[in-house]
From TrEMBL:
Keywords: Membrane, Transmembrane, Transmembrane helix. GO terms for cellular component: plasma membrane. It comes from Melghirimyces thermohalophilus. The chain crosses the membrane at residues 25-49, 55-82, 94-111, 123-144, 165-188, 194-216, 236-260, 280-299, 311-329, 335-366, 387-407, 423-444. PANTHER family: MAJOR FACILITATOR SUPERFAMILY (MFS) PROFILE DOMAIN-CONTAINING PROTEIN (PTHR11328:SF24), MAJOR FACILITATOR SUPERFAMILY DOMAIN-CONTAINING PROTEIN (PTHR11328). One of its GO terms (biological process) is sodium ion transport. It holds the Pfam family MFS_2. NCBIfam families: gph (TIGR00792). GO terms for molecular function: symporter activity. This is Glycoside/pentoside/hexuronide:cation symporter, GPH family.
Length: 469
């Protein structure tokens, strides 16, 4: 995969300065905003569509699946677009900034399905708006935002720190959304009126933080092309990425990470129909998120001391134990809360390390091929997320339909209750076990120090020392 190596540019990948905490926090603020679109939709679109818009769960699940899979494909193209972007504002920053307000508006529109539309009209409206969010504007925004981890720094500790801070902000947003959305909807009038006001508030909370991130963070670590002035063909980017086993493994890891999150989409149903109190969702969300938020403060030190792979897999084993506790006591609120809390602790190392793993893989691919893929490699973050989340939402919708879920019923048949338990406990546990296998195969860390030294010297592509791996 070698290409002719020109004279090294002064701006090639050199050691970047340590990031200030203020810039890390500014970066993390972006994921706080993004979740007021992503988590709001992932957690509540199904129950809004079934109980307010009157769309069958299986149908909305299928719509989401089609849009998300298409979206996952467009993500790969977006990575190439970022790698070829040459703007005064930067490569990723303009995409984060300018797509944010549009994303907020579309999120508002998704939770305002016109009641005057007939069933077919509603389905078309939902598909078009959902497709615009997932396949275009969230794709552009999230791939660009995620790639900032690589563009801002090449320091390993800073990358893990950015991942931790990012997900601290994200989990604070998730906790707020899952705790207060049903309360806000009820406060503002229930039914469509309540969803309209809540969605308007969330649209602002989505757009403004992302615009702040896009405007204020700095890109310092931009890999140089071997032949300046030429665009990098998408086919070449695609080829060098999918020729690398670590890229493929990380892509699968992201799919599994988001497939595991069927528990987010089913939590409101679980609270409503198993514990007979929708407000219990707030308690379940706190149990699932507060330990994770606290743990993310310590994750960079743990990863630095024990390596990313070891700390992640120990955490995943803890997560499996937690799911076993929940499986034994699925209808005992106290034990379920305990299980969710232990599970959150177990998932901390992987959540903190996800962005760092992707950035590391980008370095590996660049070293092997000589092709800058900092934006494209982060497309796996969004592509894996979209495909996994699309399947996750579809699986939730399908499982409810197969289980005989009855919208707005005072009680549900036992088959629907089994479906809810499967989505909260058994299916996520299976995904965690598969993630353990994938992470065990990501054994690249021992090679990275020497590889980064080679990159700093411009020894990439055909000029690299192939014996290092």
């Amino acid at each position: 995969m070698g290409m002719t190596q020109p004279r090294r540019s002064e701006t090639d990948l050199l050691k970047t300065p340590k990031l200030k905490m203020s810039e890390k926090l500014t970066f993390g603020l972006g994921d706080f905003g993004a979740n007021y679109s992503w988590t709001f939709i992932a957690s509540f679109v199904t129950i809004y569509m079934t109980d307010v818009a009157g769309i069958a769960g299986a149908l909305i699940g299928t719509i989401i699946l089609i849009a998300r899979i298409t979206d996952g494909i467009t993500d790969l193209f977006m990575g190439a677009v970022i790698d070829n972007t040459k703007a005064k504002m930067g490569k990723a920053k303009p995409w984060v900034f300018w797509t944010a307000p549009i994303l907020g508006i579309l999120t508002f529109m998704l939770f305002n399905v016109p009641s005057s539309f007939h069933q077919t009209g509603k389905v078309v409206y939902i598909f078009v708006v959902y497709f615009l969010i997932s396949a275009i504007f969230y794709t552009a925004n999230n791939v660009a935002y995620s790639s900032l981890t690589s563009f801002m720094t090449n320091d390993k500790e800073d990358r893990v720190s950015l991942g931790s801070i990012r997900f601290i902000f994200a989990n604070v947003a998730v906790l707020a959304i899952t705790t207060f959305t049903t309360i806000l909807v009820a406060t503002f009038g229930n039914h469509q009126q309540g969803w309209t006001v809540t969605a308007a508030l969330y649209a602002l909370l989505c757009a403004i933080p992302l615009m702040v991130t896009g405007w204020f963070v700095k890109e310092r670590n931009v890999a140089q092309r071997k032949t300046e002035g030429q665009r990098i063909p998408f086919v070449l980017i695609f080829r060098v990425l999918f020729a690398d086993k670590y890229f493929i493994l990380t892509f699968i890891l992201y799919i599994l990470w988001y497939l595991r999150q069927t528990e987010n989409g089913i939590r409101v149903y679980y609270a409503t129909y198993i514990f007979d109190n929708p407000d219990v969702m707030g308690l379940l969300s706190m149990a699932a998120l507060l330990p994770m938020i606290i743990g993310l403060f310590f994750a960079p030190k743990i990863a630095g001391k024990y390596s990313i792979r070891k700390s992640v897999n120990v955490g995943l084993l803890i997560s499996v134990v937690a799911y076993m506790i929940m499986a034994i006591f699925p209808e005992n609120l106290i034990w379920l809360v305990v299980g969710l809390g232990i599970n959150a602790i177990g998932l901390v190392p992987l959540q903190a390390a996800l962005s760092a793993i992707v950035a590391d893989v980008g370095d590996l691919v660049y070293w092997k091929s000589g092709v800058p893929v900092q934006g494209s490699v982060f497309s796996i973050t969004s592509a894996g997320m979209k495909i996994g989340a699309g399947l996750q939402s579809a699986i939730v919708g399908w499982s409810l339909s197969i289980g005989g879920y009855i919208a707005n019923a005072s009680s549900q048949p036992n088959s629907a209750v089994v479906a809810m338990k499967s989505m909260l406990i058994y299916f996520p546990m299976a995904m965690v076990i598969l993630m353990f296998v994938i992470v065990a195969a990501l054994n690249y860390e021992k090679f990275l120090p020497q590889i980064r030294k080679e990159i700093e010297k411009g020894k990439i592509g055909a000029d690299r020392a192939e014996h290092l791996m």
